[in-house]
Amino acid sequence: MLKTKISDVFFDLDHTLWDFEKNSALAFETILKKHGIRVDVAEFVAKYVPVNSRYWKLYQDDQVTQEQLRYGRLKDVFDTINYEISDETIHLLAEEYIHYLPQYNHLFEGTIELLNYLKPKYKLHIITNGFNQIQFNKLKNSNIAHYFETVTNSENAGFKKPNPQIFHYALEISKSNKETSVMIGDNFEADIEGALNVGIDAIMFNEHNIEVAEDIKQVNNLLALKNYL
User: Fold this and answer.
1) The whole model's pTM is what?
2) In the chain, which end has fewer C-beta atoms inside a 10 angstrom radius, N or C?
3) Count of beta carbons in the 10 Å neighbourhood of residue 15
4) Domains of the chain in sequence order
5) Are 13 and 128 in contact (CB under 8 A)?
6) Residue 57 burial by CB count (10 A; 0-12/13-18/19+): exposed, middle or buried?
């Protein structure tokens, strides 16, 4: 059970509501084919997933810039599969990937049903480490923007999850209180620990059943959140 009566529900976006892996694979399929890059798309995407996660952790910890993230994750994958490609082409692919990614709009199973269930009962919000325009496009193109009262991202907040300041910023612009709020996300460190450390209750969307401490509230299906909210 949640600690108190909840009025505001904060969601992470990528990997929580918006199916990043599926949409990312479709974007890569489009741009690699467009530029005649002869690689096995399935292999490329399989290599990309852990590399991207590593770069986002570095970005989250302020160890790489946005530009280094976008270039480095692609450079590392091409190096891993021993595919020779120029830096100029990598930079072009990085830009095109960002352009095409929000054009695909697969959501996790149960997202719309859950949001329809929650919307009449709570104020809903987004807190994301993603980039402002891209995250806006994802919300708009997947037809879920209208569910959310506020969207906090690391660009407008000036801080990234799990930094306490991004949560304080989100509470401030949403005019909500930490005691009556809950954070839902897939990343244990950024979403769950980040929220708990500032006194916001949290539920982990644990689709892959990662082992976490017994006292962490978790679901592996979005509709199971109805048991808490």
Assistant:
1) 0.93
2) N
3) 18
4) 8-18+105-227 (3.40.50.1000), 20-103 (1.10.150.240)
5) yes
6) middle
